[in-house]
Amino acid sequence: MKNIIFDIGNVLLDFQPEKYLQKHFNASVMGDLMMIIFSSDEWIELDMGTMMIQDAIESLTLKHPHYHDEIIFVMENWTHMMTPLEKNVEIVKELKEKGYHLYLLSNFHKEAIQTMFQRYDFFQLFEGGIISANEQLVKPDQKIYQLLLQRYHLQAEESLFIDDMLSNIKMAEELHIHGLYLPYQADLRTELEKRHIL
C-alpha cells in the first residue's frame, strides 16, 4: 500500500449538525432546520459546486421565510462545528512520517473547503485531492474516483480509501481501490493496524 485517501467529514473533521443546532435552537426548530438545510437540494448543489453559499441562502430563505434569520445564521456559521478529530489527525501525521502518499476525496462546498484549508494547517500534509464542488462531481459517482486516480497517477490496487459512508466505500472497491469503512467514532488506529499499515 502506497497511497492513503481520506474523506474529510467525520474522518478528519467532526461533522454532527444536530449537536451544533442543539446548542442554538430548541428541539422543534432544530428538527426543522436539519430538514430545511442539511437535507435540501441546495445542500447537494453546494457539494456539486453548482451553487454558492449566498445563492443557497437566498433560495432557502425564499422557500422558508418563517425561518429566515435562523437559516442565515446556520449557513453563515455552520463551518464552526467542523473541528479536527485529533486522534485521526495524529494518525495522518504518522502515516506521512512513514512515507505514505496522502490524498483527500471529499464532498464539500467550495467556500467551506477554503475556510477549512486556511483554518487547519494539517491539510498541508496532503499531496493533493479531489473536492466535489471544484469538479462538479460527487461521491459515489465513479467518475470522481477515476479523476483522483488519473490526476495523481495512482494505482487503485496500491491505494486505501477511508470514508464514513458505506456506499462511498463500495464504489471505491468496485474500482479496485481498497476500502476502509469508518463509522463515526470508530477507531481508525485499530483498523489500520489490522491492515498492517500502522
Automatic annotation (TrEMBL):
InterPro entries: HAD-like_sf, HAD-SF_hydro_IA, HAD_sf, PGP-like_dom2. It holds the Pfam family Hydrolase. This is Hydrolase. It comes from Massilimicrobiota timonensis.
